[in-house]
Amino acid sequence: MQQTKLMTENLREMSQQAPVYVLYFLCPDNTAGEEDEEVIFRADCKLWKLVKLEDGKAEGWRWQERGCGIVHINRHKTSGAGRLVMRMRGVLKLLLNTPIFPTTRYEKVGQKSVRFVGVDTEESQSCHGEARVD
């Protein structure tokens, strides 16, 4: 209480000498559901998704870039369950959040790429993904 009073008095004195600008920063809620998990692996990554062509001219598939960011392999501290989590660099938008099952196949493609199958909740269907470590 005393510190706040002193700060207010100081601001009043300063405002008589020159304009005073006060900035308020809104801090986002930093709970991301990862508080009970430990990070086992972390790397810069580019995420790609295999999507079906819907242009009407040709049928087929193509790789679509989902974004760049940091991919984490997390393990829950009590249950031991693992998952892949990736957030977009800068804005922290969630790009990938998929559980790791012992039956999931991860295929190394080239020197820096890993291909796997996951479920895209936005489209509610199974999809193929590829992560490339930068």
TrEMBL record:
Pfam family, one: Ran_BP1
Domain RanBD1 span(s) in chain numbering: 16-134
The organism's place on the tree of life at top rank: Eukaryota
Keywords for the protein's UniProt record, in alphabetical order: Nucleus
InterPro entries named in the record: PH-like_dom_sf, Ran_bind_dom, RanBP1-like
Main location class: nucleus
Subcellular location per the Swiss-Prot or TrEMBL entry: Nucleus
Oxidoreductase is among the record's keywords: no
PANTHER family, sorted: RAN BINDING PROTEIN (PTHR23138), RAN-BINDING PROTEIN 3B-RELATED (PTHR23138:SF142)
Record-given protein name: RanBD1 domain-containing protein
Organism: Durusdinium trenchii
